[in-house]
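Ticket #4471: structure output looks truncated?

Reporter: J.K.
Steps to reproduce: submitted the chain below (136 residues) through the standard prediction queue, then opened the result file.
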Amino acid sequence: MSYYLPLNKATLLFFPPQSDKMINTGPLSMPWVVQVMIKQARTEPIDEIAVFFRAQNEITSAIESVLVTDILAPLPSNEVKLAGRGYSLHGVRKCWKYGKGIELAWGETPIRTCDDKWVFNFALNDDNSSSRLEVH
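Returned output as attached by the reporter:
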């Protein structure tokens, strides 16, 4: 079943343990959870919602990639910039204080909470070129 990250709502994103032999001893051999939020710029609310809706699948996949990469090997910066057709996302990694106090499990397996959460600011832009990622 597909899912999409929503706009303007804090979401807990769960990554199940991976059974691939190549990563069965690394960080992804256990389940993880991270908080993520995509905030709307609200400069052009109707247009922003329309563009976000059209790109929601692409945005969700791009953010998932950033989060998994950060779990495997923390990114060298606390900021990332993602750009797509007609929009940009500016992500900032922040300490997830609430995450330190929760205990979750995947069946009998404890879920590790990430030390940080990610907040992405969604804004429209005039650039309709292909998607790209920048780490700053």
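Triage note (M.O.): checked the attachment and the full token line is present. Residues 43 and 127 are 17 Å apart (CA to CA).
Status: closed, working as intended.
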